[in-house]
Amino acid sequence: MPTRRSLLAGLAALPLLPRAGLAAEPTHRLRLAPAPMQIAPAQYGKTDLWGVNGSVPGPALRARQGERLRVEIDNALPQATSMHWHGIRIENAMDGVPGLTQDPIAPGETFTYDFVLPDAGTYWYHSHAQSVEQVERGLQGPLIIAEEESPDVDQDLVLMLDDIRLSSDASLDPQFAHPHDRSHAGRLGNVMLTNGQMDASFPVAEGERLRLRLINSANARIFALGLQGLTGWIMAYDGMPLETPEAIPERMLLAPAQRIDLIVDVTASAGEDAFLIQFERDGGYAQAILPVSAGTLRVRTAPAPLPPNPDHPIDLANASAATLRMEGGAMGRMRSASWKGEERDMRALAQAGQFWAFNGVVGRSDAPLVRAALGESVQITMTNDTAFPHAMHLHGMHFAEVLPEGRLGPLRDTLLMMRGETRTIAFNAHNPGKWLLHCHMLSHHAAGMGTWIEVVG
Ligand code: C2O
Ligand code: CU
User: Is 2.60.40.420 the CATH classification of the domain at 316-456?
Assistant: First the structure.
């Protein structure tokens, strides 16, 4: 075995020529390790979080559209892990799903993800192993892909919204597999965070134009958001630009894993605060504060749409069709009980913490929901026959909702489905591999709400 010294000497002897036409692409190193942090006010203790390079959320990874991203994950956790690059139309082997696209990264091991970034926009990364616990503990961070030409704004701000559930001493509530969470709305937190802080503040100036990238990284909370002292447009959902920016409604719902890109102008005056508001049943709370300093108020015109990402057209007329019925949970029912395709007794399933089914199957079975040929269009009609909302996420490809008139809605990677709803999504199966389709309420996924799609080609 060569020593480090001899290795280095050997390397130094090689000519260091960059590959023609390509800038050097550095490898990001992300070390995942326990990182106790002061999240709660000072009179409480630290919270037993797990950090990415010592921070929660992890550092924002930034790259340009079309580039290759290389990230070495160094697992210094007491559990096996993996990293998923949420919303990236990624090469299948880099998707980070243990048991489907890779083996978990054992404690003490490393794994290097290396993939091309086809799309610009707002994405995020998070653990995809024991995610109820690992995402809650902090293994999550923004992944920001710049357009060739970014819109003209004064500030580009990432706001990662989360909620965590703390015990009275500020330690994390350790019951990550609580049957109530798994069978009801998932693990909801009691402390709201933006970028890991309870009182996140973003200084702005009067009249500034801001790009706000909102990411919901919570286990299960659906954020209902509003703005005060800011006015503007929705530019993109889940990374994908809208052809025509939309006026921001009074309330925006942001389901777990969803993103919204906004461009807003600061309309509050110097000395005031602008707010990102989070609405609860009893009123609005400041999710982020934007203290306003003196500046110049300007009359602004609406921003141009963001440049479109590569298109994979959906051919509805020739799409193959599948259905997915979501069942189970508290106040719900399950017609049949099979565990990953094998018959099981319902009571035994519930005792094992398995409460939900897709098409009567609890958990990911060996057979995909859909097997599609490369480039085929697929539509899936999903019915939420449960008493809870679910945030349905497809890996590897974005889909559009088929709207009543047969029009296609905006491209998304995560769709919020309210109780009782039936909605149809359609996509071009342009990305070969095995792709999860699951509820992003992480306790629901762990309790049975997961299937997959295979694109063969
Ligand atoms: Cu954001 Cu399957 O995950
Ligand atoms: Cu769900």
Answer: yes
